[in-house]
Amino acid sequence: MAWTRRAKTSQALAMRSRIILLAAEGINNKVIAARLNTIPHTVGKWRRRYLELGLDGLLDEPPPGTSRKLRDEQVEQVLTRTLESQPEAATHWSTRDMARATGLSQSTISRIWRAFSLAPHRAETFKLSNDPLFVDKVRDIVGLYLNPLDRALVLCVDEKSQIQALDRTASLLPMRPGRLVRRTHDSTRHGATSLFAALDARTGRIIGQNQQRHRSLEWRNLLDTIENNGPAELDVHLILDNYGAHKTRFIRNWLAMRPRFHVHFTPTSASWLNLVERWFAALTEKQLRRGVHRSTKELKTAINDFIEHHNRDPKPFIWHKNADHIFDSVARFCKRTSDSGY
Known about the structure:
Blueprint: H1 11-24, H2 29-36, H3 40-53, H4 72-84, H5 95-102, H6 106-115, H7 134-146, E1 152-168, E2 187-200, E3 206-211, H8 216-229, E4 235-240, H9 249-256, E5 261-265, H10 276-288, H11 296-312, H12 323-339
Parallel strand pairs: 1-4, 4-5
Antiparallel strand pairs: 1-2, 2-3
């Protein structure tokens, strides 16, 4: 019997299986008990169970206690109310409100919601692009990620504007065993800076500049840095969003005099296509969100140190989905949105 040989079979089930196998050979209960280091009464019990119920008889019986009190109809009622209705004078259900409405306990409501992965108190945001050239732009940019051009430099560029230099109004309370680090909810502002950054899609390296403002002049300063520090023999493909400073006559004239620079605009409301946004998220998570900076100088130093540390061992962000997979995902999401009834 396979149960006696499976590594994950419980010892008790394996013992019962061996009892039945030995019994099938015509061995009496006392001999079986001696071989398996148990008592004849146990051997007889499992032989009787096997004769009555077959293999199911070798499984443990349900534990003693009260029978299940929660009916399927009650679970369905909770799910229906949660998904298809709202409580009076509220936008979403709480466990207390649902318990009062259904007559069940609050802990029962919590168990049902956990079992079906429901969290009425949580919400996420989304934004669908209405760019008429959405399909063409997605194919263009994703093509650069998945099929890099020969002898070309692909840079994902953008600016993270108005990064605040924040200092807490009281000292941090450090982390200790069993206690999280604690900080004041309010802060003192000491100015701001804007970070212009270009991410090399192939290597993951960052070119970054801190600027006080984020106009087309500051944007051209980054373009000048790219031109002066990049390989002169390579075409440069810039992936960027539709911010007004990227499209001024000042910038268009600069690009017109440099034919090796090619611009690829992301669709409107689709910044997720720009890989530098992922790097900005890492900067925020690891340095800015919990950082304490008492001046813009301290803030710029922290940002520059983060860039230097990143560039010592850069790791590129790998794009996996092709354009058709993205369109399929968007189509499914649009269908769910139109079918939601809201």
